[in-house]
Amino acid sequence: MVARILLGAALLSLAAPAYAESWDFVLVNKTGKSIKTIETSAAGQAAWTAEQLDEDVENGPVRPGVSHTVHFDKTGCALDVRLTFSDGSQGVFTNFNVCDYAFGEFAFKGEQPVVKGS
Known about the structure:
- There is one protein chain.
- The chain has one domain: Domain of unknown function DUF5300 (Immunoglobulin-like, Sandwich), CATH 2.60.40.
- 12% of the residues lie in helices and 48% in strands.
- It is built from 1 helix and 8 strands.
- Strand 5 (78-85) and strand 6 form a beta hairpin.
- The radius of gyration is 19 Å and the shape is globular.
């Protein structure tokens, strides 16, 4: 009888869904452009997921020089961030370490997207 209970408990634990951890970081927009959408992916995976928007907050474009809190499901420490700008262009900022940095300054160095953590 005890063996059946333990077996049942083990099977139930396998059937339980795995939930991602909800995290956030502060994006500092130093791109010189207004950001229309923000998407994240585990680094190198290109499995883009839109940021999780707060329902009680008005979410408009993130203007240059403005900070914005990005909510996402953590899939690992290294994160790629894809920004779509109001002019329709995009930039992919790679390998932002969300475990080490709570703030990221997103900018362009020439045409190259760069992110600096702090």
